[in-house]
Specification:
homodimer; alpha+beta; Mth169, Chain: A; 3-stranded antiparallel beta sheet; about 40% strand; elongated
């Protein structure tokens, strides 16, 4: 089973990387851009085959290591 | 319109960050882990309202700045 974790900064948390990307895109001539935010994408291969157990394990990984729950939110997608 | 760009390293490209995450998770006691790969998630707010034009613009942003097409693949999701 494959898990894909999307980690983004919470709304309101300052995102200098996103701002830098926005400025670079504007400098390249892309207009009509609002806010740009950068997050992380983590793809994990799991031996676990039960979706509920897998989701629970990945959730523990997020809380324990992958995400910082103080400033980040995460979303888990599972693929069989 | 909101665009979400998922950028991952191509298969076969060495991913030391993913390896470090895998080792850290193993160290924390998570078993049954296969490969772990880290990518980027970029969220953009666009003034554009036409999905085709928006997708085309974000595709140009990816090829011009956001992704390195030599070693990375990207996937664009649009949200109205």
């Amino acid at each position: 089973m494959k898990a894909r974790v999307h980690i983004s900064l919470k709304t309101g948390v300052h995102d200098p990387q996103g701002k830098a990307i926005r400025n670079a895109l504007s400098g390249l001539g892309f207009a009509g851009l609002g806010e740009v935010r950068q997050g992380k994408l983590i793809e994990l291969e799991l031996d676990e085959t039960d979706p509920d157990t897998a989701r629970e394990a990945v959730d523990r990984m997020c809380r324990g290591l992958l995400a910082n729950p103080v400033i980040e939110t995460y979303h888990i997608d599972l693929e069989a």
